[in-house]
Design goal:
Strand content: 5-15%
Strand order of the largest sheet: 2-1-3-4-5
Largest sheet: 5 strands, mixed
Distance between the termini: 62 Å
Radius of gyration: 26 Å
Structural class: alpha/beta
Number of helices: 13
Number of strands: 5
Number of domains: 2
Order of helices and strands: HHEHEHEEHEHHHHHHHH
Helix content: 55-70%
Shape: elongated
Length: 357
């Protein structure tokens, strides 16, 4: 038994990646997620419109932070600010008082705003009649907010974990090396590998959305083509990440480790669970580079708020650009992985012909 223990310790010492994940990763996750795991929203960007917009803007209590003031604006302008995602709160002023509009898809932000308005008696607004109206998720149901994001998480799981395991399994079986002696470009190999998973992921997305609408009564208020475009872009990025993971993994264990390292930050830091505004500034920037952050923004915007594609051009553009980068890197990795064996396979016949001549 002692010999087996010594052998395992020696083997573990050689596997530096596993040791790093066992020692460094838990501490890193604790620090990062410790700063991210907060439901308190310290700042609520707010748009103020109407004839008394300037005066009311100066009277808004914390945590409301006025980002736009439009004295000529109307209720329609305030609703558009929420629908397009420019601000999660809007205040409409008029002769009959103040109407506060809240975006119900920003669940914790709306709850923080409601708590702040409940203590409005201590602010300059105490003398103004205040009316509250929650849009897009009036009951503030958690399932309505979570289902669109969970659809993205399922796509991420299929694209990252399943794809990486499938490609690594083929490498361990030796069939990947056989591709090197075939006249196939690395780009064709990449696209061929992700095509089946792309179809499966698209079918999973359809099933999840239909189930969410049917079982949890999640509204689908926006454009189906806009949502489909966002889902396909995100799925393409997720599949590319899975192929990249497989290209640097020697076995399925390493692929699972790297896939988990990619999944956990996206689940915790994308705004799916914890609002980005509640995260510490040093951690929040991580969320802004994760693809799931932008799919969640697209899914909630299209499904719940019926936001037009023009209002969501930034997350669409980011996913498209990231997809190009991921495809380039994955193709490059495949070229490096297949070139040595390919060159040997392709040059042997030429050498044989030279000797025969």
């Amino acid at each position: 038994m002692w010999a087996m223990i010594v052998k395992e310790f020696r083997q573990l010492r050689r596997d530096r990646r596993t040791v790093a994940m066992m020692v460094v990763l838990p501490v890193l996750l604790l620090v990062v997620f410790g700063y991210a795991a907060s439901f308190n929203v310290p700042v609520i960007p707010t748009t103020v419109v109407g004839p008394d917009a300037a005066r009311v803007a100066g009277a808004m209590p914390a945590p409301f932070h006025v980002v736009a003031v439009d004295p000529a604006g109307t209720m329609t302008d305030a609703s558009s600010a929420l629908r397009d995602g420019r601000s999660p709160a809007a205040v409409v002023t008029g002769s009959h008082g103040v109407t506060v509009l809240l975006d119900g898809t920003e669940l914790f932000t709306a709850q923080a705003a409601i708590r702040a308005l409940a203590h409005v008696a201590g602010s300059p607004l105490r003398a103004v009649p205040v009316r509250l109206d929650v849009l897009y998720n009036p009951a503030l149901q958690t399932s309505v907010v979570m289902v669109p994001g969970l659809a993205g998480m399922i796509l991420l799981f299929v694209g990252t974990v399943i794809t990486s395991l499938g490609v690594v399994r083929e490498r361990q079986a030796g069939t990947l090396e056989q591709l090197a002696v075939m006249p196939i470009r690395p780009r064709d190999v990449f696209l061929g590998k992700i095509a089946p998973y792309f179809v499966v992921g698209a079918l999973d997305m359809i099933v999840v959305i239909i189930a969410g609408v049917a079982l949890f009564h999640v509204p689908f208020s926006g454009s189906v083509p806009a949502f489909a475009l966002g889902a396909l872009l995100f799925l393409f990025v997720a599949l590319g990440i899975g192929v990249l993971i497989s290209s640097v993994s020697q076995n399925q264990g390493q692929a699972i480790q790297l896939a988990i390292m990619m999944l956990l930050p996206q689940i915790m830091l994308s705004g799916l669970i914890f609002p980005l505004r509640s995260m510490a500034a040093g951690v929040r920037w991580i969320g802004y580079v994760l693809p799931l952050t932008y799919f969640v923004e697209i899914a909630r915007g299209v499904m719940l708020r019926a936001a037009p594609i023009g209002a969501l051009w930034e997350p669409f553009a980011y996913l498209a650009g990231l997809g190009v980068v991921v495809v380039f890197l994955a193709t490059l990795r495949f070229r490096r992985a297949l070139a040595p064996a390919g060159e040997r396979g392709w040059h042997r016949p030429a050498a044989a012909l030279g000797r025969a001549a």
